[in-house]
Every structure is written in structure tokens, then in C-alpha cells.
Amino acid sequence: MSIPSGTSTTKATDAAPEHFLQDKLALSGMHCAACIQLIEFRVRQIPGIHAFVINPATHRAEVQWDAAQTGLSQIIQAIVQLGYGALPANQSPDEFERQQNKLAIWRIFVAGFAMMQVMMYAFPAYLVPVPTADGDLTPDLDKLLKIASMVLAIPVVGFSALPFFQSAWRDIKNRHIGMDVPVSLGILLTFFASVWATYQGGAVYFDSAIMFVFLLLGARWIEQKVQKRTGAALKILTQLQPLIARVLPGFPQKKDVLEKDASQLLEGEVVLVVPGAQIPADGIVVEGCSECDESLMTGESLAIPKAVGDTVIAGAVNMSGKLVVRATQVGQQTRLASLIGMMERAAAEKPAIVLLADKHASRFLLIIMLVALLAGIAWASIDPSRALWIAISVIVVTCPCALSLATPGVMAAAIGLMAQHGLLLKSGKAIQGLAEATHFVFDKTGTLTAGRMQVAECRDLTSSVLARQLAFRLASESAHPVSKAIANYLSGWQGQGVHLQLQNVREVAGAGIEAELNGVIFRLGQPVYATQALPAPFVLPPELTGKSVTVLADQEQVHLILLLDDVMRDDAPQLIQSLQKSGKQVMLLSGDAEDAVQNLAALCGIKDARARMSPLDKHNVVKALQTNGARVVMVGDGMNDGPVLSIADVSIAMGQGAAISQTRSDLLLMSNRLNDLMFGLSVSEKAFRLIRENLMWAIVYNLIAIPAAVVGWLEPWHAALGMSLSSLLVVLNALRLYLLPRPAFPLTDE
What we know:
This protein is of the alpha+beta class. It has 28 helices and 27 strands.
């Protein structure tokens, strides 16, 4: 079996040797955790396989292998031989899925039609359980109805139930007990025992076998639809990866366009992005001006202006003008590819409470089959006519479907909901961590504040209109964040300032900017730089010492003193209040000055705020909290937050933060909206509660159903109905997550 055309492989991650390759596969035909375990077990036995992990939410697998020992075609062939479908992830399995869905509907139709007919045939027998020659149902008519029921059951067993038999046979061949083994056993035993009773006398349960098949097929079809919905956000992201790149090999001398596969794009190549097209790689705009929709990464619905020198991300959509972009990160190195990988790994991870149930799923099946055997033996001495049917009821009623389905649907729904609001999970375990958190620890700059400077106070020492006009003009000449804040503050003087004829404008990096006006040199910048031409040393007022200050001065005097401060996020007080109302303890740990930290803490309502904290100090505070039993969520932004993020129970990094803080975090707040964090907390708490409810229901159901079947209180059709409804209830319960109220956000410029 050869690799289909269009497939591309990439070098493995840093965890694997350089000569290892990695790729992703789209799988089909899986129904439960047992299917996943079987595929993973089989593929990992192939020589040269370094890693193989299946995401149960998206049915995608990530594989790493040694190219010297095996190839992608051998891996795909091994999966196909197990009876499952496998394609490279860049080839859509939609057509295969449509065919399978159509076939599944036909199987359900055949089983449903037969069930309605057989129920009518079985109804007289239930009314007259012991037909006699003098009764309403004669023996000949009773046998005729049984034969008719058997004829109707044959296509159900031979066609509708075929997927169960194929899956069971595959499991047995691979020495694995999956969910479909007891299902198939129950169907076959019920059918052939009823065939025997049709000719030898006794009760038949063709109706139960057909109902079991119909209900189980229907439940699985609904499960697949629900699973497709809950995993929609992850699937959309995987489909957002650009396919085509328009390369400009001769840029800037020539602008001939050469189309190539986006996955084959090389770092440093220049690409043309036309309006409406996706950007094929992370890069820098070298020509053109436009707006880009980056909502897939940031959750921000407004298009973001892009001009020469601005960065763009792969997968974003160019909205208006043409852009020429130089690629800086390509293929699996782009932010989009990293994001998809993070979310898929997160969806594959499970909270600790679930791991125990999954670990013992196969053992549970063996125990149930043993219980069914013992129940049959026991009833053989009590009432031989009921022994087989009770054993069948035990097998049918207890199926680990509910246990297998307890987590994937909820996890996929939670990750998708968070992603829609700009909160991206890198670790699925963070769901349980957020739900059980007792303390939220925040950094200040870039976290509770926007990391954007603003003018808090302007002191005009000369009361000169010209000074404000000149300060605006000088600030407008620089792209520095402080200059932008000053220009924004003095924007009211824009009309008058534009007429000033400045000469010899010069910016000094890290110091300020200067220009000459009418033979006089003015400087705007740090006090030491701006006042160095004064005849006497300039001394700042004591209350401004240690704060961020910008000065406008000439050779004779200081005209303006501007005090700058960071901007508190508008939603910071609301977040803190919401956390405190929900019973969480909130702390502020910052390296800033005492006054700035305490002022922000007072505005937000934080009682425990600590200033001038080094990275080690923050690390020690969180460690002490954990020692006392606290479950700590750390929200940070800067490089100095890396150490404390790495030890927190759940670490959250801002999307605008330093790369090191993002790599050490469990979640990324790409939207930079703090209210999204509160929504994420609500989603996590609800998701973890639903997982526990699902697991509890599965356990309680089995504790009730097994004894009821053993003592003979359940007929086979009762068992079939109970098992199917149990699985369906677990799946539908996951959809309750979508009932959470969504936050509404005002439009901001952040």
C-alpha cells in the first residue's frame, strides 16, 4: 500500500531524534475506548514507532517513526488490517464518512422496520404465553409467527448487526476483549437460541435481539453526531491550515507568481497574499497594506490593520489589499500548527478521575462475561428454561459504553467552547485543575494591566501652548510605546502642532527624540537625556522619584513633565470580584513599585498584594501555598513569570506575553480579555461536574442493572433498552455544557 499523493511528513519534535519523522492521520470506524486501545497497541508494535497517540475527540492520531525502519504506508496498512480507516490528515475523509453514514442509516432502517413487524408478531404470544389448541393462539399459528419473526431477524443479524460482528472478530484475532465482543455474543446467543426454540418449543426473543441491534445502532449514530458537534472547534482549526502558497521567487526585481503546497514553503521565501486568501505562514509584511482576520488565534472579531513591518500569522485571512509577506515560520513551526497540536493533545488527555475507569474497562468486560456464565449455571439448577436468557440479559445490560463515553464528549465540548472565546488549552488536565482551584495568583504588568502606557499626569511648568504642540509633534515622530501614549494624550493639540516646521529630527534609542525649531533644540524623553543641555542639573520632584517620567526641555528650561503609568484592563475589577464571589482566594504578586501595586490592588479589590517580588519570591510564595494544601492557578505575562508558571497547578499565560511564559503554561489567553478567563473557569467547573455525573451514572446503572439481570428481573429486551439508553444519556449529558451563558464583551482597542 503506497502513501497517497499529497502526503507530507515533517521532522519530529525535539523529544525525538532528528532522523525521526512525524505526521498526523485521520482515523475512522472507532466506536469506543477499546477501539483506541487496540489501534494504539497494534501500531506501537511496529518496529521503528517512536510515539503514537490517538485523540478520541477528533479521531486524529499523531505518529512519530524512524524512517530507516518503517514508513507511513506500513503504519496506515496496519490500521486498515485491523478493520479501521486511516488517511493522512491533510486528505479529508469526508467522502468515506458520508458513505459510512449512508450505510449506517440503511442498517438502522432495516433493523427499525424489522422491529416494528416482529413486535406485532410477538404481541399475541405475550398475551397468551402458553398457547393451547382451545385458545386464541393455536400451536400452528404460534409456530408460524415465530418463523416469520425469524425470517425478519435474519437480515438484521446478517446486515444491520454486521459491524458488531466484524469488530468483535477483529478484537478476538488480536487477543483483545472490546465492547463489541459481549454485544455480538448477546445478539448471536439470542438469535440462535430463539431459532432452536422456534422448532423445539419454548419462548423466543427475536424481538429482543432486533430491538437490541436497533437501539444500539441508533445510539451509536447519535453519539457520532454529538461527537462531531463537540469536536467541531478542533476540526475547524485543523481545516484552517493553508493549502496553497503563492511564492514570488524573484522578489523584489520580479513579481512572477509560482504556486506551491503551503506545507512545502521554506523559511525566508516571499509570498503574495491576495484579498480573501489565507496567509500560508507566519511572517513579516514587506510590501502592501491591508486588514487581517486573526479571530482563529485571538478570538477578536475585528480585523487587524497590517502594514510594512507588521507580523502576520498562518491561517489568518487577508481581508482587503494585497500583501507581500516574508515567511519566518513555516509548516509545523507556525503558531497555527502549534495551536492545533496543543489542542489535540489537550483533548486526548483526561482528568485523573477518569484514568482509573479507562484502565479497567477491559477487565470489566471479562468480569461481566464471567458473571453471566455463573448466573447461567446457577439458574440451570433453578429454572433451566430461563438460564440462557438470564445469562444473555447480564451480557446485554452491562456494557462499558457509558464509561468509555463519559469523558471524550465533555472534553471536546469544553475545549471547543474555550477556544471560541480565546482561551486555548494546552493540557487537558487543566480542566480538573481549574475546577478544583482554591487560589488565583496574578502578575500585574501585562496581566491585570494592558501592558500599555498612558499619561497619568502632565505638569506644565511654563504654561506654554507651544510646549504642548511641540511635545505632540515630537511624540508623533516616534513609534515607541511611550511616545504613542504621549501623542494620544496630547492629540487635542494636533491641529496646531502640524504647522510647526521641525528640522534635524533625531531619535536616540532608549533615551528620547530631539528636533530643532527656530534655532532652538528641544528634547523629549528620559529626564537625564532631555535635561543634559540645561545650565544646572534638573531634580525631579520627590513624589515622582522612581516613577516613569518623560520630560520636554530645551537648553534653558524644562517645559513639561509627563507622568506615565500602565493601563488597568477594564475587566480586571469584574474578574477579581467574580473570583472572590465564587470563593477563590486572589493574590497579586508584582515586581513593580509599592505605590503602583497597591493602587492597582485597591482599584481591583485585592487584599493580598505584594510589590517588588523577584521571580524567586513569586516561586516561593506559590510553593508555600501548595505546601499548605492550596490548588494554585497562576496568571502571568512576562519572562520573569516563567519559574512560577512552571510549578503552579494550572498556569495561564496571556496571548501577548513572552514566549517563555507561554511554553510553560497549561492555557493561553489569546484574546487577552480577562472575562474570557472567568468564562473558562465556568466551563471547567461545569465540564468536570458533567464528567463526574457521567461516571457516577455509569457506575450506579451497572450496580443496579447487574443484580437485576442476575436475579431474573430483566428480560433481554429490557436489557437492550437499558444499555442503549444508558449510553445515550451519557452522550446527551455532555451537551449541557453548551447551555452555559456566553459572556458579552464591549468593543475595545486592546
